[in-house]
């Protein structure tokens, strides 16, 4: 569970930085070829970075909500596991007595 959450958060963080790199890769040639003004390029990069940040925050909210939802289930699963072990031990003792 923790691994999944960690990977999800890292995916969100990585997506924003990856987007910036891709945007810069696309924009630099356009500036060199005079197809895009430097001023417009800066605005575009800022806009994409802002969108990436918004997406990061959205992903973090989703992950946090899922963690809160999962906590009671994890606790319940732990209790069920303990109970199953007790039942298995009890059954094993009965079998050994025969």
Report on this structure.
This protein has 98 residues and is an all-alpha fold. The chain has one domain. The protein has 2 helices and no strands. It is rod-shaped. The model has no long low-confidence stretch (mean pLDDT 80).
Task: Produce a short descriptive summary.
This protein is mainly alpha-helical and 98 residues long. The protein has 2 helices and no strands.
- As a percent range, the share of strand residues is under 5%
Number of domains: 1
The helix content, as a percent range, equals over 70%
Mean pLDDT: 80
One letter per element, helices H and strands E, the order comes to HH
* Strand runs, count: 0
Q: How far is it from the N-terminal to the C-terminal residue, by CA? A: 41 Å
Overall morphology: rod-shaped
Largest sheet: none
Number of helices: 2
- Which structural category do the helix and sheet elements fall into? mainly alpha
Low-confidence stretches: none
The Rg value, from CA coordinates, equals 26 Å
